Structures are given as structure tokens and as C-alpha cells.
Amino acid sequence: MHRVERVQESVPPPARTDVTLSPPYYGWDANNHLRRTVSVTDAGLRIERKYVQGKGGGLAHPSRFTTRWMLALPDPRLAKVAVKGGGLAKVLDLRYAVPGGIRGVRAGERLPGLDAMDQRFDEVLAASDAAVVRLPVAAGAQGELILQLDRGDGLAAVLTTPTAGWEAVELKPVVEQKYLQVTLVGEPTPMDKEAKSSSCRCRRCTRGRSLPPRVPRPARAALTFRSSLPRSEWPATRVPRPARAAVVRSTNATVPS
């Protein structure tokens, strides 16, 4: 796919961009545009996308309009990410994720207890480093799809979007580089050569929500016995067992006199 992005000047904001999408097998085609509007509101960062196709244009049939976010993780051991809406109510806990995999539990294992962010989440799952966790959205679901990342340092990022039009949410923690990759997978969109204009669902991201910070649990220290007495004067660590009583067996044999 050939892409040419042009920034449209706008004063005052919002900022607008126009991306020309040209499938390589058609040669250059300037009839396909993905237009994006980015604005900052009281509710947070708002992004709106619209696909505009001129007559004779068209992308591969069908096409998906997928979006991806990279959210910072100052300390992945403290982070949890919750997904609510579209038939989903799950939490991913990153405390066991280590560079290259997971330690202590299996990836996808259900962890005990409720998540502290919201009592409505009754399923907490362990996540592994660099592994994609795919959460399918229920077909025909309405309302809002909400993703909440509790970074563990007192800040949270909340991503909100209409549920309709999304097929799945994919989450991929990257521990070594300290970020969470969030991919919203769009449903297949029919394509033809007729002119059309369609909205690709808006997203809103809010940052700065205050949450109680968490600290990692310290490792348990090994117990060490120290004494100022020489070893020869140490008290006995074991109590001697009492001697066993002799066992006398009776017999009916006649002893000669």
C-alpha cells in the first residue's frame, strides 16, 4: 500500500491530516483518502477518521480500518489493563511478565481475586511479554468499548470508542521497551468502485486520572542465624531421643532343668 500524508493547516485547532491510499497493484490511484481530525477537549484527546473514496477508486475487498496505540509503562510489573464493553470484562495483569516471556505462572492463567480498579471485573489473567492477547468483541454489540490502563504510578490512560465496527482488541505488552501496544481491529468493510464516504469510528484517550500508586513487593530475604558464641558452645539443635525399651517375647517352650 502506497501512502502519502498531507497535513491540512487549520487555525485554531483541531489538526487535520489527509492520507492518500494507493494499492500497489493498481498503479497510482489518488481516489482513496483517509482523513483524520485530532483535537484536544475537556474529555481528553479525540481522534476522528473518515474514509473518502472517489468514483473509480477502491481498496482491496474487503478492507479493515485498524488503529494502534502505544501506551507507556514506567514499570510493567505494576501495570494492569482492563477492557470493558462489547461482551468483554477482563483484566490483564503484567506483574509476571519478564523480557522474553513470563515467570511464575502460565500465560493466560486466571489469577485469584478481583482487580482493584473496578469490582465489575471478575476475570484477571496473566499476560506474557511480546505475546498478543486477542479479545474478540461480541457481534452486534452496542455502547462503548473502554480500555483502562493503570500504570501503577498514580496515572491511568483511558481509551474510549464506540463498540460497533470493531472485531477484536489485541493487547501486546513489550516489557523491555516499557510500553503496551493496543490494536483495535476493524470489522471487514465491503469495497466497490462507487464513490462513498464512511466514518471509521472516533476514539478518545484520557490521561492523568489519579490512582493510588503501587510498589513492587520486595523479595523475601533468607533467614540467617548469627551468634557471638563459638560453635563448640552452641546449644544443641536436636533433642536426643529416649532409648527404646527392650522387647521381651514370650514363648511356650519348656526350659530343661
Reconstruct the topology from this structure:
Elements: E1 2-8, E2 15-22, E3 32-41, E4 44-53, E5 67-72, E6 80-85, E7 88-93, E8 97-98, E9 101-102, E10 110-111, E11 124-126, E12 133-136, E13 144-150, E14 155-162, E15 166-174, E16 179-186, E17 196-199, E18 203-210
Parallel strand pairs: 7-11
Antiparallel strand pairs: 1-2, 2-3, 3-4, 4-17, 4-18, 5-16, 6-7, 6-13, 8-9, 10-11, 12-15, 13-14, 14-18, 15-16
Tell me the count of domains: 2
Q: Could you name the ranges where pLDDT drops below 50 across 5 or more consecutive residues? A: 114-118, 219-224, 247-257
Percent strand equals 35-45%
Report the total helices.
0
Report helical residue fraction: under 10%
Order of helices and strands: EEEEEEEEEEEEEEEEEE
Number of strand segments: 18
Question: What would you call the structural class?
Answer: mainly beta
Query: What would you report as the Rg, rounded to the nearest angstrom?
Result: 32 Å
Q: What's the shape?
A: elongated
First-residue to last-residue Cα separation: 116 Å
Mean pLDDT: 76
Largest sheet: 12 strands, mixed
Fill in the keyword field for this structure.
single chain, 257 residues, mainly beta, 2 domains, twelve-stranded mixed beta sheet, four-stranded antiparallel beta sheet, 0% helix, disordered C terminus
